[in-house]
């Protein structure tokens, strides 16, 4: 194995989700001592504007600050950059084109690959995510390219998902939000989904494996695993 590549996390959207991604990178790295971990640089910029409001034209675009953060990470030595927010991937292509000196890993693409590798026979997934992620068809594009299908919640359940995400970001404990999200997941399973994608980086901190009678896919973990593998390729 050659020299490991340095990983950068473009975070702050929100800060706890950024910490969750870092923790999953740590736990996904095969190690015997501290020095076996890959080097990770984090910019947790919580001042990046709301992605959802920007998509609906109700707020400032997050792209300029996302690009500043990516450039900061690159200047500090990051060679692989991860975006610790699903909705922010609306700007993934612009970011990648504006800074082609580093490798950006796409959470949707890595999740689709993970599903193909780990969940044989599952072809249709229900998606719990923000309005921005669903409206941008971010998971649909990546999953359809792999021959997999995505189904979003109906309007009433989507409103519940959004309410839970914002409440978690505001500090309400996960235990108080788990039940309505599980109900939204059950509704997707009842309509034909065979697995559930937790397509917002806050959701894997609320819903756990075993909460639903079907595979629950954590995109944050899929991204963490991909980052470790890419870094250790040298």
Question: If you had to describe this structure to a student in words, what would you say it looks like?
Answer:
With 234 residues, the protein is an alpha/beta fold. It folds into 2 domains: 7-106 and 222-232, Rossmann fold, CATH 3.40.50.1860; 108-218, 3-Layer(aba) Sandwich (Rossmann fold). The chain is built from 10 helices and 8 strands. The longest helix has 15 residues, at 155-169.
Question: Would you kindly provide a brief summary of this structure?
Answer:
This protein has ten helices and eight strands. The protein is of the alpha/beta class and about 230 residues long. The protein has two domains: about 110 residues, Rossmann fold (3-Layer(aba) Sandwich); about 110 residues, 3-Layer(aba) Sandwich (Rossmann fold).
Major pleated sheet = 4 strands, parallel
Strand order of the largest sheet: 2-1-3-4
As for the CATH topology of the largest domain, it is Rossmann fold
Cα end-to-end separation: 6 Å
Shape: globular
Uncertain ranges: none
Structural class: alpha/beta
Search tags:
four-stranded parallel β-sheet; 234 residues; Rossmann fold; 8 strands; alpha/beta; single chain; globular
Topology:
Elements: E1 7-11, H1 15-28, E2 40-44, H2 51-55, H3 63-75, E3 80-83, H4 92-98, E4 103-105, H5 107-118, E5 124-129, H6 131-135, H7 138-145, E6 149-151, H8 155-169, H9 178-190, E7 195-199, E8 216-217, H10 219-232
Parallel strand pairs: 1-2, 1-3, 3-4, 5-6, 5-7, 7-8
Helix pairs in contact: 1-10, 5-7, 5-10, 8-9
């Amino acid at each position: 194995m050659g020299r490991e590549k340095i990983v950068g996390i473009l975070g702050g959207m929100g800060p706890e989700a950024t910490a969750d991604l870092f923790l999953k990178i740590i736990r996904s790295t095969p190690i015997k001592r501290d020095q076996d971990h890959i080097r990770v640089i984090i910019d947790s910029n919580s001042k990046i504007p709301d992605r959802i409001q920007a998509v609906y034209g109700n707020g400032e675009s997050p792209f300029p600050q996302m690009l500043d953060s990516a450039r900061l990470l690159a200047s500090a030595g990051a060679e692989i950059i991860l975006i610790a927010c699903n909705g922010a991937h609306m700007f993934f292509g612009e970011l990648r084109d504006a800074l082609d000196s580093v490798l950006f890993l796409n959470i949707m693409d890595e999740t689709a690959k993970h599903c193909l590798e780990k969940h044989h026979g599952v072809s249709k997934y229900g998606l719990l995510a923000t309005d921005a992620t669903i409206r941008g068809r971010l998971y649909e594009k990546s999953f359809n390219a792999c021959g997999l299908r995505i189904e979003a919640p109906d309007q009433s359940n989507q409103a519940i998902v959004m309410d839970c995400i914002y409440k978690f970001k505001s500090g309400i404990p996960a235990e108080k939000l788990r039940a309505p999200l599980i109900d939204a997941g059950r509704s997707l399973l009842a309509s034909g989904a065979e697995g559930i994608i937790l397509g917002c980086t806050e959701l894997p901190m609320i819903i756990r494996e075993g909460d639903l009678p079907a595979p629950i896919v954590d995109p944050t973990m899929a991204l963490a695993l991909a980052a470790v593998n890419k870094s250790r390729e040298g």
